[in-house]
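Input record, target 12 of the design panel.
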């Protein structure tokens, strides 16, 4: 019984892991620097290195920079903590950016840079185009017009610096990253609980 209580407690901690600020360590970018686009690399709360996408053309950063950020799961549609939440149609803009991030999971790696430039253009229309970025931007708009059929935005996480409206270009940027679906953790947890309960009954 003690094991069961401990497991339930661990699962509760997992579900609330992002309830407070997240410690971000920016690992770096590709050899050609910021303009190379996705992927950049970062760790969150000391976890593994993750591929991340910058959605902020103006802000920068250097390898080794650290800051605190708020985590938002895009599937919640809660924009309160996000950097561009005051833009007209902000939810649609973030959904377009999230959809573009998810395309990196199926598009050839040669398209990742244009995809990131398309994301930059969503929030900064004055950002320069690159490669097929205009075509990707158009595709994102078409998906938005259809309501993003079949897209699970719970797969998109957004890490926004605590100073979400920071105007200092040397300040940290907002990052997008693919995250596991919450259902994955719920299924895993319920399965483990079931196995422990069964073991106790036999």
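The sequence produced for target 12 reads:
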């Amino acid at each position: 019984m003690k094991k069961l209580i401990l497991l339930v407690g661990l699962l509760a901690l997992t579900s609330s892991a992002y309830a407070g600020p997240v410690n971000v360590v920016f690992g770096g970018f590709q050899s050609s620097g910021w303009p190379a686009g996705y992927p950049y690399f970062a760790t969150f709360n000391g976890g593994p290195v993750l591929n991340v996408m910058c959605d902020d053309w103006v802000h920068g950063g250097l390898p080794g920079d650290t800051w605190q950020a708020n985590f938002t799961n895009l599937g919640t549609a809660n924009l309160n903590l996000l950097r561009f939440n005051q833009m007209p149609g902000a939810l649609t803009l973030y959904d377009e950016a999230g959809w573009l991030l998810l395309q990196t999971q199926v598009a050839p790696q040669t398209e990742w840079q244009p995809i990131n430039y398309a994301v930059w253009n969503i929030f900064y229309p004055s950002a320069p185009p690159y490669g097929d970025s205009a075509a990707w931007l158009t595709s994102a708009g078409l998906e938005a017009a259809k309501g993003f059929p079949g897209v699970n935005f719970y797969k998109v996480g957004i890490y926004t610096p605590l100073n979400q409206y920071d105007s200092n270009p040397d300040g940290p940027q907002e990052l997008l990253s693919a995250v596991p679906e919450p259902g994955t953790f719920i299924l895993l947890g319920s399965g483990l609980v079931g196995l422990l309960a069964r073991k106790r009954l036999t």
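The mean pLDDT is 84.
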